[in-house]
């Protein structure tokens, strides 16, 4: 049992140390937090604040390149599953899902469903704020 656990731990460490996303290398702790968030809906090491979309839009530059959690209903989805538009009570937000589309995200029939997304706040053309999704969880 311990041998299997140690092999899995070494594999996770090797995978997560070499993982680079958009020019940003994630630490083992961050990678483990993303996995536990996707699987169980919680994080082990860090606590990322849950924000509403209006707060993210208004804080804009103050949250740039920081991780946040947002919760909303999928309003629209790109044909290839590379982006979604998420809506909550306060606003709408574009969410880039290219990191997730490689892992099978982009299934049909998710429109109108509520999701919690762990993502990184980015600034696009003309300073428009959007979210680069790292992990998502139904909820």
What do these coordinates show?
It is a single chain. By secondary structure, the chain is of the alpha+beta class. The protein contains 4 helices and 8 strands. It has a 5-stranded mixed β-barrel with strand order 4-5-6-8-7. Strands 1-2 form a two-stranded antiparallel sheet. The radius of gyration is 16 Å and the shape is globular. The model is unreliable at 16-20 (pLDDT under 50).
List the helices and strands and how they pair.
Elements: H1 2-17, E1 20-21, E2 24-25, H2 28-40, E3 50-51, H3 53-59, E4 67-77, E5 83-87, E6 92-96, H4 98-101, E7 114-123, E8 129-138
Parallel strand pairs: 3-4, 6-8
Antiparallel strand pairs: 1-2, 4-5, 4-7, 5-6, 7-8
What is Rg?
Answer: 16 Å
| CATH homology superfamily name of the largest domain | Bacterial OB-fold
Report the sheet-strand fraction: 25-35%
Structural class: alpha+beta
The name CATH uses for the topology of the largest domain is OB fold (Dihydrolipoamide Acetyltransferase, E2P)
The second-level CATH architecture of the largest domain is Beta Barrel
Number of strands: 8
Q: Which overall shape is indicated by the principal axes computed on the Cα atoms?
A: globular
* Helix-strand pattern: HEEHEHEEEHEE
Detail the poorly predicted runs. Answer: 16-20
| Strand arrangement across the biggest beta sheet | 4-5-6-8-7
- Give the end-to-end Cα distance, rounded to a whole number of Å: 33 Å
Largest β-sheet summary: 5 strands, mixed, barrel
Round the mean pLDDT to the nearest integer and report it.
78
Number of domains: 2
Helix fraction bin: 25-40%
With helices defined by DSSP (H or I, 4 residues minimum), what is the helix count?
A: 4
Q: Please write the CATH class name of the largest domain.
A: Mainly Beta
What assembly state would you assign to the polypeptide chains in this entry? Answer: single chain
């Amino acid at each position: 049992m311990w041998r299997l656990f140690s092999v899995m731990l070494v594999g996770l460490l090797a995978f997560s140390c070499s993982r680079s996303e958009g020019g940003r290398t994630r630490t083992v702790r961050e990678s483990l937090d993303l996995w536990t968030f996707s699987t169980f809906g919680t994080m082990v090491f860090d606590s990322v604040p849950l924000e509403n979309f209006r707060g993210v839009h208004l804080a804009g530059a103050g949250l740039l390149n920081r991780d946040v959690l947002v919760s909303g209903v999928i309003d629209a989805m790109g044909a290839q599953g590379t982006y979604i538009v998420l809506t909550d009570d306060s606003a709408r937000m574009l969410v880039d899902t290219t990191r997730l589309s490689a892992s099978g995200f982009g299934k049909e029939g998710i429109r109108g469903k509520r999701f919690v997304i762990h993502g990184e706040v980015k600034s696009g053309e003309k300073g428009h704020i959007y979210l680069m999704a790292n992990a998502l969880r139904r909820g």
